[in-house]
Write a structure and sequence with these properties.
By secondary structure, the protein is mainly beta. It has no helices and 11 strands. Strands 2, 4, 5, 6, 9, 10 and 11 form a 7-stranded mixed sheet that branches. A 4-stranded antiparallel sheet has the order 1-3-8-7, with no helix packed on it. The protein is globular.
Amino acid sequence: VQLVESGGGSVQSGGSLRLSCAASGYSSSSYSMAWFRQAPGKKREGVAAIDSDGNTAYADSVKGRFTISLDNAKNTLYLQMSSLKPEGTGLYYCAIGEILFVPPTLVDNAFENWGQGILVTVSS
């Protein structure tokens, strides 16, 4: 399984970014994918998740600002981030795993495969 994130970078507070995660090699047509982030000096936390049936879940801190989506034809996961805040700075990882819960979980040990991560920096 290979997951490759792209779209990170630097943005000012209030700005927007779209992250992409190209997935390949996952054998099942039923799966859950998610975005996690790890801020400097903090634990990794779930941001948003989506499963192959279209069910979604969001962390309270990003509800109304972030949108997760899945393009099955392109095997690509997206995270549209708007109204970004400085506390959104960190490494963003995409992950894929079995569907264990509906709506999908934001717990990291539920996901089997991870990307390398991509840096997002939000300046005030």
